[in-house]
Amino acid sequence: MWYLRSCGRFCPRRARFLSRLSSLMQVFRQTLNPTTGRAEWTAMDEDYDYNQEVARSSYTDMLHDEERNKKYKAGLELAIGRVRGRGQRVHVLDIGTGSGLLSMLAVQAGADRVTACECFKPMAGAAQKIVKTNSFSDKITVIPKRSTDLTAGPGGDMEERANILVAELLDTELIGEGCLYTYQHALKHLVTPDCIFVPHAATVYAQVVESDFMWNWHRLRDLPITGCEKALVPSSDMEACMGAAAVHDIQLSQVKQEQFKPLTEPIKVFRFEFDKKMESLERRTELSVMVTATGQAQVVLMWWDIEMDPDSSVLLSVAPSWAHPTPDNMQWRDHWMQAVYFNHQSIPVEKGQQVALHGRHDEYSLWFQVQKQGSTTSAGSEFSLERPVCRCGGHMVWSRPRLGMLNDRSRWGTYAAALKQVLAPGQTCVSVSDASWVPLMAARLGAQEVGLLYSSGGKNDKKCLHQHIYRLIEANNLQGKVHIVQGSEEQLEAALEDRKVGMVIAEPYYSSSLLPWHSLYFWYVCTRLRHKLQGGATVLPARAELVAVAMEFEDLWRLRAPVGTVEGFDISVMDQMVKDHSNQTDERVEPHPLWEYPGVGVSNPVTLMNFDLTQSVPTENLVATGEIPFTCSGSCNAVALWMNYDLLGDGRHTVSTGPRAPYTSGRPQWDPHIRQGVYFMDKPVQVSADFRLVYRVTFSPKDGRMDFQFDIENSQGKNL
Ligand code: SAH
Ligand code: ZN
């Protein structure tokens, strides 16, 4: 059921999406299998799907976030102390109770009564069970409703208004889960005028930086090709485009120091006091800020902190390491990261200068722009900070990491070198790709005609994809040489008429691919096109291999570690939901951008399976079994998986979707533009060099599925 996951990144805080789903009883949807490219009907019934959603969501990561839990507890204790000090009985409203944790903390801290609501029905059910298991049912009432559907007053969901409101409705962008409206509604309808909010307030910070590394996620650059006079260029409308609207969240502390240069100090841009009435859920501000280093203002980094109590004595910050109040004692978490915003243009700024930092937010998002002070007003036009929208199409065709990949010159150098070796004059070439440099490069390097069949499994809107690629072809003067074929292989066949194809090429990269081997889609298309190929036709890449390395991740494994007890409460009901899910399906592998998650290899990288792309997809299952020796002592908690493509089949032009450089041991330098596959072990296992990882991999050609089984054996051959 990976095909549902169309979000660019793997489900951080998907609560809003889930709540919409939960109202549907049973849904059938037609989805495209990302590997075979064929349509499939998928049933989403309640038991199956929601357990998976819970299993793969951020709920357990939140529960593992000890700093968060402890600070909510401290905030609740302070609030309850205050209300008691006023001589009042304590009635807590917990909005979005999830597992029920905050409600139980409130009772433990002395609340007389807690009303908990939760709009995601399967979670509300879990909360009820957890509250019962921990014997809190007499004090906590769980209502399976959205807070905005609750009523307070005689005969309502709550007999009277609450005098403490606790909620954890914050995401990486702070307000992305809609907390502003939820709080405003609660102020008006659900709580008393003197109600204490936990947390009480939040501050949004921004820091302007120069960073080629990040700017490459925003703008497509020229691509010089060795031996060609003319570089490949982006379409010019991309230069003026504001870019994509969606927030870009990353583990900012993993960006290396040499990959960015701060141009200002961190700046407080917005403060939200959750217990105050807001005139409007939209605000904008302009701050004059001092530039602390000369450079190009390209990117605005964002993070926030929250004050758990009205005296601001308990503070929780999600700042990156260099701006964190306690850099040596930082909680790892994945449910809150930091966000990156892109300036419309790269602006040169000088140390000592003042620049204008514009910030704006609406109900759900934030955005920023840096400007030279007075620069636009002097030109006569008022600077308007509009929400970014992509008008060029390019930012819709390409995700941000994909743009980074298209700007990765060393990657494209490998393709150019391989193409040069095999392109013969007069050849008709078919490129099976999403919007890629490959077909343009082939045309520039001399292919007579290139038919570009783009992935029919692509998630992008076909029309915008088509138009932007067309402009890209025009910008490079390759009209007449590169033809776009929209749709399926059948359409391609029709377009080819009676021409025979001398070469089929691909990166292969498809935006519909979530796991590394989904790009074997290329193999399926080649197989279906076989009868159109000339004798001796080139297939590039010629070979693929699936590679694995046993890993000791510092933190990533926590995402899937059982919760057990949290702050003394038994939350194992959640673990059971996750386990039920794992028993139902073999889908153990998740995509993660591993450059954001530190870890070391505890084995050498090993090829699990080879694919000869010059041959047809086999009809029988491919099965590979074997052992991977561990190379050092450590805690093995996962196996990282990726694909390597050998473009010509001679081992001399290899492109990897795993480590950037051939990797032997230690910390892999993961390619930052693509996600790798991660198989999480049931539990971390302490291994040493005489242990081994026993594997069995099955590739089923019928549906393109890859199933994995990994077991750890000690030196006596005992399964651990
Ligand atoms: N309070 C839990 C879970 C936090 S996740 C904890 O701290 O561990 C946020 C939860 O709030 C999600 O389960 C989401 O479904 C729910 N939610 C978000 N907005 C809501 C609203 N307005 N009313 C009820 N539930 C809401
Ligand atoms: Zn655009």
Automatic annotation (TrEMBL):
<dbReference type="GO" id="GO:0032259">
    <property type="term" value="P:methylation"/>
</dbReference>
<keyword id="KW-0949">S-adenosyl-L-methionine</keyword>
<dbReference type="GO" id="GO:0006338">
    <property type="term" value="P:chromatin remodeling"/>
</dbReference>
<dbReference type="InterPro" id="IPR029063">
    <property type="entry name" value="SAM-dependent_MTases_sf"/>
</dbReference>
<dbReference type="InterPro" id="IPR055135">
    <property type="entry name" value="PRMT_dom"/>
</dbReference>
<dbReference type="GO" id="GO:0042054">
    <property type="term" value="F:histone methyltransferase activity"/>
</dbReference>
<dbReference type="GO" id="GO:0006355">
    <property type="term" value="P:regulation of DNA-templated transcription"/>
</dbReference>
<dbReference type="GO" id="GO:0016274">
    <property type="term" value="F:protein-arginine N-methyltransferase activity"/>
</dbReference>
<comment type="function">
    <text>Arginine methyltransferase that can both catalyze the formation of omega-N monomethylarginine (MMA) and symmetrical dimethylarginine (sDMA), with a preference for the formation of MMA. Specifically mediates the symmetrical dimethylation of arginine residues in the small nuclear ribonucleoproteins Sm D1 (SNRPD1) and Sm D3 (SNRPD3); such methylation being required for the assembly and biogenesis of snRNP core particles. Specifically mediates the symmetric dimethylation of histone H4 'Arg-3' to form H4R3me2s.</text>
</comment>
<keyword id="KW-0808">Transferase</keyword>
<keyword id="KW-0677">Repeat</keyword>
<dbReference type="GO" id="GO:0035241">
    <property type="term" value="F:protein-arginine omega-N monomethyltransferase activity"/>
</dbReference>
<feature type="domain" description="Protein arginine N-methyltransferase">
    <location>
        <begin position="200"/>
        <end position="373"/>
    </location>
</feature>
<dbReference type="InterPro" id="IPR025799">
    <property type="entry name" value="Arg_MeTrfase"/>
</dbReference>
<protein>
    <recommendedName>
        <fullName>Protein arginine N-methyltransferase</fullName>
        <ecNumber>2.1.1.-</ecNumber>
    </recommendedName>
</protein>
<dbReference type="Pfam" id="PF06325">
    <property type="entry name" value="PrmA"/>
</dbReference>
<keyword id="KW-0489">Methyltransferase</keyword>
<feature type="domain" description="Protein arginine N-methyltransferase">
    <location>
        <begin position="543"/>
        <end position="705"/>
    </location>
</feature>
<dbReference type="InterPro" id="IPR014644">
    <property type="entry name" value="MeTrfase_PRMT7"/>
</dbReference>
<comment type="similarity">
    <text>Belongs to the class I-like SAM-binding methyltransferase superfamily. Protein arginine N-methyltransferase family. PRMT7 subfamily.</text>
</comment>
<dbReference type="Pfam" id="PF22528">
    <property type="entry name" value="PRMT_C"/>
</dbReference>
